[in-house]
Specification:
By secondary structure, this protein is of the alpha+beta class. It contains three helices and nine strands, in the order αββββαββββαβ. Strands 1, 4, 5, 6, 7 and 9 form a six-stranded mixed beta sheet that branches. Strands 3-2-8 form a three-stranded antiparallel beta sheet, with no helix packed on it. β6 and β7 form a beta hairpin. The protein is globular and about 45 Å long.
Length: 160
């Protein structure tokens, strides 16, 4: 069962600290299809496109968080995933439209094996679809950086 934001770990912290900056542990999925296209979601909160992503809940591993977030946001089941990067520099701080501030500590996974069917609109997304790297919609810069890092990935874990 999907938790509401207020019931989530970050939601509980926000009740205590308001919009002050928090370090948030999270996951990001680069889901690719057989043609090499990338799955993006059209986010409701920013009206921009991005990768399935979210924060890790208490009692959850990063792999469990990855599988949960991909399922919630796209309807797909992650069958296998390989971590290839972590982003934690302060420059990756985000202020959301509601004023909440975060500095992310996100582990990025490449997902080449998945099953299921894409879902339409849900609580967080207007839609989701696969796009070619040369045909991306209005995508947040952080996700573009992730895709560029994946293009140049040589098997050595990326730490930024």
């Amino acid at each position: 069962m999907e938790k509401s934001f207020n019931d989530s770990y970050i939601g509980q912290l926000r009740k205590l600290v308001g919009s002050k900056k928090l370090i948030v542990a999270g996951v990001r999925a680069v889901v690719r299809n057989k043609e090499g296209k990338i799955l993006l979601i059209h986010r409701k909160d920013t009206n921009r496109w991005g990768m399935p992503a979210g924060s890790v809940e208490l009692g959850e591993s990063v792999t469990e968080a990855l599988k949960r977030e991909v399922k919630e946001e796209t309807g797909l089941n992650v069958e296998s995933a390989e971590p290839f990067a972590v982003y934690s520099e302060p420059k990756y701080s985000v202020t959301y439209p509601n004023g909440d501030q975060t500095q992310i500590f996100v582990i990025v996974f490449r997902v080449d094996e998945w099953s299921g069917e894409l879902i339409g609109e849900n609580d967080e997304s207007l839609s989701c679809d696969f796009f070619g790297l040369d045909d991306l919609p209005d995508t947040h810069e952080a996700y573009i950086e992730t895709l560029n890092d994946l293009k140049n990935y040589n098997g050595r874990f990326i730490v930024k």
